Amino acid sequence: MNLEKIMNIMLLSCKEATCLIEKKAVFPLTFKEKCRLYVHVKMCVVCNLYQQQSKTIEKALSKWINTEGATGDLLPPKTKERIIEKIKED
Amino acid sequence: MEKKSQQTSKHVVVSEWVNSHGDYLFSWAYHKTGNREVAEDLVQEVFLAAVKNFEGFKEKSSPKTWLLKILNNKIIDHYRKSAKKTVHLDDQAFQFTETLFNANGNWKANGLEEAWSNDTHLLDDPAFNDVMNVCIEDLPPRWRLAVISKYIFDKETLEICQELEISKTNYWQVLHRAKLLLKKCLEINWFGAN
Fold first, then answer.
1. Is the model's pLDDT at B184 over the cut of 90?
2. Does B23 contact A79 at a Cβ distance shorter than 8 Å?
3. Using an 8 Å Cβ cutoff, are A48 and B116 in contact?
4. Where among B55, B78, B101 does a domain terminate?
5. In angstroms, what separates the C-alpha of A88 from chain B's closest C-alpha?
């Protein structure tokens, strides 16, 4: 096996590596995937940082979901009346 | 006669809930949909569903929790409907995320790689969360549905895939692209701007 072939097997592109980082968050990686990701992240500073950024984004998403929105956003009284009317009709 | 009074009482109870929980549900729905009319419609649907399924309400859980659960289902339905209408946006967004990488699939440097790590209290900053809100709204609806389902119900991944009618492989690929788009959006509107 020549060197290029070995490199291709061992080395992921950043696009593939970041995809595996996201896969890892939801599904178990295969042994081969784990090895390749490990090697890539050890060598690639940007993907190493991406790993942390991805976690930050996760936290921000979770926070977004659990935010109820501004307190000033009220259901207009007219809509309340309309809904209560509809409930009566039901 | 008894049946009739039971019916009346459930109408009365749910009507009271409109006054006591309507604002909370509305602000929740408005925050998740970014559209007042849609949010009002969803809240109305929630209360009508609450009358219809009143027997499913257990006094043990609080009405607010129960109503919120119904609302979250309605929100997901709403996302699902818009996701079906906007499949073309997936392609555009996919092409855009491709531009983050060079021809070999490696990152194009943008000078903002380190900026993320410098801010440790990022998530406590309301201004950052406002930018996050904009970036989530910018996602193509199908991608938004995929990332949000994960947090809104706290469900197992396989269950989410079944609900979204996508394969496992497709699911993490969508998550990947959505994350890339969010990252780029935050870099343009937050890290690059500050």
1. yes
2. no
3. no
4. B78
5. 7
